Amino acid sequence: MQAGFAFSKLADRLASLAPVTADDLHLLADMASTIAHLGSRQTVLRHGDDATQCCLLLQGYLSWQDAESADGQITSIHVPGDIANLHTLHRPRVDGNLIALGPAIVALVPHRFFHDLSARSPAMSRALLLMLLTDHAIQRNWTVNLGSRDALTRVAHLLCEITARLQSVGLARDFRLPSPFTQSDLAAACSISPVHANRTIQELRRCNLLQWQGKTVMITDWPALVRLASFDPTYLGIRPSHEDASSHLKPLTAEVALV
Amino acid sequence: MQAGFAFSKLADRLASLAPVTADDLHLLADMASTIAHLGSRQTVLRHGDDATQCCLLLQGYLSWQDAESADGQITSIHVPGDIANLHTLHRPRVDGNLIALGPAIVALVPHRFFHDLSARSPAMSRALLLMLLTDHAIQRNWTVNLGSRDALTRVAHLLCEITARLQSVGLARDFRLPSPFTQSDLAAACSISPVHANRTIQELRRCNLLQWQGKTVMITDWPALVRLASFDPTYLGIRPSHEDASSHLKPLTAEVALV
DNA sequence: CGCCTATTTGACCTTTCTCAATAGATGTGG
DNA sequence: CCACATCTATTGAGAAAGGTCAAATAGGCG
Questions:
Q1: Which of B76, B90, B96 sits opposite A130 (nearest CB)?
Q2: How far, in Å, CA of B232 to CA of B234, rounded?
Q3: Which nucleotide lies nearest residue A153, CA to C1'?
C-alpha cells in the first residue's frame, strides 16, 4: 500500500464534493499518515476516547456502533474515501465505537493536518465541510429509513445507498459489492433481528434482485431494487460528474431518473 | 417582539456552545432579520426550495418532515435558539419540509449575515460549526432511538431530549413544557402509530412520570423518566455551565448523574 | 477432517398496526 | 350563548410484522 494511495483516495473524494484546483489538491501531498491494516471486527476508536487523528478509510468498511444498545446497533457505515470521524476535528470526544466490518485499510492522519489544510485553502475547507454535511444528510436519511420502511424495503434501501456511495468513488461499478459483513451486521444496521434479516435477504433473492454468495453481493436488478426501496440518491450530494472519480456515475443517475 | 430578542436568543445559544467574547457577541448587533409569526402547521421551507435565509427559532417548535414517507415522518425537532436550517448555509437545497408544530415565532436572517459573521470572527464561526455538529449528534441519536428502543422508552427518550434542550436555553426549568403538538405529531417523531402513541402516553401517565393536559406536558418524575429512557444528555454537547443561559442546567446534570 | 462461525428453518410469542367506533375539546357562526 | 362542525383523544378487537428460541445445515479454515 503506497502512501500515495491515501493521497489520491482523498483527493478524488474531495474533488467530487466541491470544485478544487490542482493547487488545492497539491496541498494533500504532504499529508503525513500512518497506514493501518485492520482485522475484521477490530475496534478503531472506543466510546469516550478523545480522537487526535482522522481515520481515512482506504479499503473495506467501517461502522459506528452505539455503545449502549444491547444489540450493538450500527448507526452509520463508511465506505472508502470517507473520513469516518471527521466530526472529531471539532469535537474530539468520541461517541460510540468505530469498528471495522471485515478487513479494512485506513490512513490515520493527525487532526492538525486538516486544521492546517482548512486554514490554507478555503476550497478544501469547504470540501471538508460538505463532507461533514453529507454525513449529516446520510444520518437524516437513516432516520427516515428506520422510521418509515418495513424490513424488506429497509434492507433494500441500505443496499442501494451503499452501492451508490461505492460507485461515487469508483467502486462496485458492475454492481458487485464486497460484503465482508455478516447478515447480523446488516440486521444491526437496519434494526431488525438477524433471523429476520436472513428471511429478508432470501426474499430479495427470490425476487431476483440480488445474489449474496460468500463475501460478495451482486445486485442483479438495480432498477427494480431502486424502485422497491424508493431510493433517491439526491441526499448523498454526489456531484453530477466532472472527471475521473464520478464520471461512471452517469449511468447510475440516468437509471434512477428513469425509474 | 423586539428585534433585540432575536439577538439575545442567538447570543445565549452561541455562547453556550463555545467560548465567545463580548466583542464577538457584539457582531450580532447588526443582524438584520425579519420576524415572522407562524400559525400552527404552517410550512416554512418546502422540499426542493433553495434557502437564502436562516430560520432562527425564537418561540415554539419547528419540525422537519420527510417529503416522501406517507405518514409524514418527523426527522427532527427544533427548540428556541436553534437555527433550523443551519446546513443550508452551505448546501441551500432543502431536503424535506420545515413545519411549525404549533404557533411559533422565527427570525429570518439572510445567509449572507452568517457568512460575514464567520469571516469576521473565528469564535463565532466555531460556535456555528458546533451548532451544526450538535444537530448531527442529535440526528445520530434519533437513529439509535428508533433503532433500539420500544415505543415506551422511545417516547420517554424523546421527551427527555426535548426537556433537556429546552432547559439548556432557559426554558421548562420547572419541567413544564408547552406541547402544542398533537399525539399524532409525537407518533410521527417516534415512528409509531397515533393509536399506539396514545396508549404509550397513558402508560407513562399511569407510572406517574408525567401529566399531559391540554397544551402542557408536566414531567412529574424526571429521574424515573431519565432512567426509563436511559437518557444520557452528553450527546447534546451542552457546556457544563458558565453564565446566564446555562447556569440553571447544573441541577439537571446533577440529577441525571445521580440516576 | 473437525471446529467454529454464519446461515437457514420451524414454531410460537410479542409488539405494534389497522380499522372502526366513541367521547371529548375546540372553535365558529348564528 | 348555543348548536354544529371539526379536530383530537380514547377504546376495543382482530391482524400483521417481526422477535425469540432452538435446532439443523452449510461454509471456511487450520
A1: B90
A2: 6
A3: D17
Domain ranges of chain A: 8-134, 151-242
Q: What phi, psi does B63 have (nearest 5°)?
A: -135, 145
Question: To probe the interface with A, which of B138, B140, B232 has the most A CB atoms within 10 Å?
Answer: B140
Residue A246 has pLDDT above 80, yes or no: no
pTM as predicted: 0.91
The percent helix, strand, coil of chain A (3-state, each to 5) is: 50, 20, 30
Q: To which CATH superfamily is domain A8-134 assigned?
A: Jelly Rolls (2.60.120.10)
Architecture of domain A151-242: Orthogonal Bundle (1.10)
Of A238, A16, A26, A14, nearest to A124 (Cα)?
A: A14
| CB B72 within 8 Å of CB B65 | yes
> How far apart (Å, rounded) are the C-alpha atoms in residues A157 and A79?
16
The answer to whether the Cβ–Cβ distance between B146 and A191 falls below 8 Å is yes
- Tens digits of per-residue pLDDT, B214-238? 899 999 999 999 999 999 999 998 8
CB contact under 8 A, B143 and A148: no
Residues composing chain B: 259
| pLDDT at residue A182 greater than cutoff 60 | yes
Helix boundaries (H) for B3-148: 3-17, 22-26, 111-120, 122-148
Q: Which residues of chain B fall below pLDDT 70?
A: 1-3, 240-259
